[in-house]
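Researcher: Good morning. I'm working through a list of sequences from a screen, and I'd like to move beyond sequence-only analysis. For each chain I'm collecting a predicted structure so we can compare shapes side by side. This is the next one on the list. No need for commentary yet; just the structure.
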Amino acid sequence: MPTREDIRNVAIVAHVDHGKTTLVDAMLWQSGSFRENQDVAERVMDSMDLEREKGITILAKNTAVRYGRVKINIVDTPGHADFGGEVERGLRMVDGVLLLVDASEGPLPQTRFVLRKALEARLPVILVVNKVDRPDARVEEVVNEVYELFLDLDADEGQIEFPIVYCNAKAGRAGLAPGALESDLQPLFDLLIEAIPAPFYEEGHPLQALVTNLDASPYVGRLALCRVRNGTIRKGQQVAWCRADGSIVPAKVTELYVSEALERVEADEAGPGEIVGVAGIAEITIGETLADPTDPRPLPVEEVDEPSLSMTIGINSSPLAGQDGSKLTGPMLKGRLDQELVGNVSLRVLPTERADTWEVQGRGELQLAVLVELMRREGFELTVGKPRVVVREVDGKVHEPVERVAIDAPEEYIGVLTQLLALRKGRMEEMVNHGTGWVRLEYLVPARGLIGFRTEFLTETRGTGILHHVFDRYEPWHGELRTRPTGSLVADRRGPTTAFALFNLQERGGLFVGPGVEVYEGMIVGENARSDDLDVNATKEKKLTNMRSSTSDELVRLIPPRPLSLEQALEFIREDEAVEVTPASIRMRKAELTATKRQQHASRKARGLAG
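Model: Good morning. Structure tokens for this chain:
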């Protein structure tokens, strides 16, 4: 088959924080994409505010660099398995992958996840061992671990014979041996052009372009990002739009863009192998095909992995609703969720019994928390339920998702970690002690057991442990799990909190609010040290008299409250609790606010169990 030798399409895949976006930065600089004096932010591909704040990549994005006479289209993918839908889409655009692995940490669960996807797509792999300058680098062992991972994932002989390049992405240096790095990335570019195949196409084949991603422009509306498989696409051309439902509709390409560095540049035409942006088709979605109107041949729609976690998102129904946000109604919320579905192929939105609440299914807590955080910043007020696993029925038995967990922690915490994971029905798969005082534990744990585990894990390891997990498979239901051992301190009336009331409450457990905060009946103000919930009066004021007392003017010393982030709040809540999210605040509350109704429900449940 003929090939386009002037183009290479490559995705950079890796575990989170192993340096993908930093490597793309260095490639852009060294290919002359920026002026010498141009002011460019670090990790320039992480363009969302949330990506910059969290230091992670959330959306797959593509850029292009020129090396000699070859244009290299690069797709930067997220490292979190929660955003696995982005990785799967990114791999459809490319002909090979750069697998980035940290020279000290080695392959981790997300490395396994992204590599499995690349091997399933039968893409050639170049191994890039990054951060070889780390004082604790163990390059040879890491390369052997990657070979083991390939064998574990049933790679064939051709895939296992992968080329290796060693890198220090931050300094922009690469080499074919760990101790002999060049002053630039030339060895990486040369290897990339040699090992990644050029895009092939069929001579005389009619146009086929697969939509793999969506973007939006304030000037031309929705942009469909396509990989041109065969034929040539031109600006102003009439095309056949092969929709997901099987229908074929005529459409016109009003604008055509190609990537040059970080810019989208207008183009008159693009040939096979090119990654283009197409404007002019307002309703187009991911997985559809643009084809020749005289001979439309749709490309197969590829499936993405099913979601494994769900939570309910509804309008804010608390007494303090409407004070912070501007988007408060059910139709607004439904419209925003539908809009998210267009560009996010791994999400599902299902109706619930209540008209103003929807069940949103996704890949993990982080993905769902990022969606809620984005909506909060747009002015929405929401009530978010506890994350739950999505179960399946296989041969008449209920199956639940099981995650592969990798933990790096100081060796003195082995005992407490094995105890924590045993309570969550975890099975140890592997334990490796590198002899540096740190140990790596690999477990298979039901996904239910990991909801709320991260906070407890960080507490027990004094903040030193590193935890990563990725979906592995479905297994039969593991039975009842012990959840949070503590209860909640629940406010029993509305009003501002007082220092006097909180001083008396802090003996009962940790507090989430300070003095002067408006609370309402059913709002969670703290964590009870015991397992049951306790209704408390957090607004009680000190009674004043006109008698002087030597103790009356004592300073009240309060322990500082522990404010929870959105992710921490979602981990903390129980089945009968929810998180109230507004642009200005995050509050936890009982799903049923009235104390008497909660007691009636609890007694009915107890009678049902007793009978």
